[in-house]
Amino acid sequence: MKRLFVAIDFPQAIKDQLKPLCAGIQGAKWVESHQMHLTMRFIGDADEQQLTSIQTGLATVHATPFKMNLESVGQFPVKGRPRVIWVGVKAEPALYPLQKEIEWIMHESGFEEADHPFSPHITLARFKTPPPIEHVQQFFEQHQSFVSDTFVVDGFVLFSSQLTSSGSIYHPERLFTLI
Q1: What digits encode the pLDDT tens for the residues 69-102?
Q2: Alpha-carbon distance 149 to 120, whole Å?
Q3: What is the DSSP string of 35-103?
Q4: Which CATH class is domain 2-177?
């Protein structure tokens, strides 16, 4: 069994722009830059037969490259003490049909519908114990105007994720190119 997800990976230059945001809130578990991505669909555990079905389905995706940039910061849950700090996504409308097609392929491969609506974001930090609101507000004030360079999304990746005591390790299973 492999734990799988589909994501858009970012150019290293974009990850380098995000890295300075990953500090400033005590108790945060900051995401390493090599793990930064936009999750299009978390799949979960899949056996070899399901993996083959997913790869076959994803290979049929027909979408053209599109532009995207990252901007602003926020939290989940939206109100109250945060469990996650994120950076938002500003993308051309092509992002949403791509995500819907990926979702449809997961359904056709026998997986349940995603348990929450698609909310494009890049996780920067997670908290076991939510920090005081004042610390988060200070972080938001400092980074609210963040905007990355614009980049072209020309593919997506099927990743496997291995859970370890020091965090998840991501392995690209297959790259799918947009043409």
Answers
A1: 999 999 999 988 899 999 999 999 999 999 999 9
A2: 17
A3: G-EEEEEEEEEE-HHHHHHHHHHHTT-----EEEEEEEEEEESSSSS-SEEEEEEEE-TTHHHHHHHHH
A4: alpha beta
Helix axes 95-108, 48-58, angle to 10 degrees: 140
- Catalytic residue, from 37, 107, 143, 171: name it: 37
Give the tokens for residue 49: 């037969």
- Give the DSSP letter of residue 22: S
Paired strand residues for 85: 75, 125
Residue boundaries of the structural domains of the chain? 2-177
CA dist., res. 46 & res. 56, Å (int): 14
Q: What is the pLDDT of residue 168?
A: 87
Cα 70 from Cα 87, distance rounded (Å): 7
- Catalytic (active site) residue 116: no
Active-site annotation holds for 37? yes
Q: Which of 34, 107, 116, 121 is catalytic?
A: 121
